[in-house]
Amino acid sequence: MAEEEPLPKPTRESEDYLDDLAEELAVPESRYEQAERSYKSLGEWLHRPASTVRQYDPQVYVQGSFRLGTTIRPLTEAEEYDIDSVCELRKLGKSQLSQQTLKAMLGREIEAYHDAQSMTKPVREGRRCWVLDYADGAQFHMDIVPALPNERSVRLLLEARGHDPKWSKTAIAITDREVPTYTVVTDEWPRSNPKAYADWFRGRMAIALERRKRKLAERVHASVEEIPDHKVRTPLQAAVMILKRHRDHMFEKRPDVRPISIIVTTLAAHAYGSEETTGQALIAILEGMDAHISETGGRYSIPNPTDPLENFADKWEKHPERAEAFFEWLGQARRDFGQAAQTTDRQVITASVGRGVGTSIAERARKRRQPSLGSPLLRTASVAPAGAGFSFPDKQRAPSKPQGFGAA
User: Fold this and answer.
1) How far is it, in rounded angstroms, from Cα 279 to Cα 355?
2) In the Cβ-directed half-sphere of 202, how many Cα atoms lie within 13 Å?
3) CA 229 to chain centre
């Protein structure tokens, strides 16, 4: 914010409100358990005796906002939750088959699982994944990305380019039917590393996570080791959740230029300085996000912190309107949350924040405050940084377009 006034330090009242807003955005734990059972059930299916992929040691795990603990309720009742997952066949290599063959192999098993579970909605094929649509009452769908181990290739690639390969151990190769090499056996596969990204993100909030776990342990008379990560929401997680809702509301009618979540999350994690409260974290993030974007000759760069050869902003050069939209959003978020930060009037805070996140949820957050509950900073959270705490509201939702790790 080189040419702008610094954002104000948040008042206690605005701090309380932002904690309540994050709580309102969070997904309740009861429905998460249903979703967790679903992806674990698929993993068990792939390991059954009759499975055609069992010998390849299939591992199903979650990725994206679900894994990071930054999932929020959908903006409208017309949407549903995405569970972004990976199915990694640990004992297969890229030299043994093509992306197309891998995807078809896994697709047959997912179809068989679909039929065995008596699921009514057909299996859908996405660009990189298979999609299981659960019954209307479940209000979610699961994207399953086929993958293979890719440590050696990524390590050699990063070393050859002079980069530290420390994150390459969990690298994977994924399928993408739109790349030229989709149908041929080659070492050139699209790459990803959701486990490493989640570890990096967790490292950015490690100090705050430990601090909050220690305080909660003291309050409930337990050891820190007994407090699971998902019982504590860090200021970074809460701030990312709030920023994502602000973005969703602002671009509700312009989804094509909406800043993708991986960019918002990465810049927020970079700018976060272990602030102790949600309000302090949000202000620090808003002031510092753009400092982690480089630009040369109209080409913007936001490197993947675990794979510096990947640029999360690579599409901004071809679509400059997306870069413009990001900076437009950042400016508006600074104004909305800056105005809310400097007041002690909860009604004024609600109005300021409501312009950015939506009046309905802003009002619900205003009504959450119950002094008898004590500090909201130590409330148990319903969203987990390591794949727990994902859940769903009670109203039915219609399917929405599946999205991958970078767009969640």
Assistant:
1) 17
2) 18
3) 16
**Rounded to two decimals, what is the model's pTM?**
0.87
The two tokens of residue 294 are 């480089």
Stretch (H or E) spanning 324: helix 320-341
Residue range 76-133, pLDDT digits in tens: 766 778 889 999 999 999 999 999 999 999 999 999 999 999 999 999 999 999 999 8
- Contacting residues for 374 by C-beta, under 8 A, at least 6 apart: none
Cα distance from N-terminal residue to C-terminal residue, the chain: 27
Instruction: Kindly report, residue by residue over 27-64, the tens digit of the pLDDT.
Output: 877 666 777 888 899 999 999 999 999 999 999 999 99
Instruction: Say if residues 370 and 38 touch (Cβ distance below 8 Å).
Output: no
375 to 195, 221, 225, 370, 379: CA distances (angstroms): 32, 17, 22, 10, 7
> Which has the closest alpha carbon to 262: 148, 142, 404?
404
Q: List the one residue out of 144, 131, 261, 285 whose CA is nearest residue 204.
A: 285
Tokens for 230? Answer: 């998902």
Sketch out the chain's domains with CATH numbers: 12-27+199-386 (no CATH), 29-197 (3.30.460.90)
Instruction: Let me know: does 66 contact 390? Beta carbons within 8 Å.
Output: yes
Q: Return phi, psi of residue 41, to 5°.
A: -65, -40
Cβ atoms 105, 52 nearer than 8 A: yes
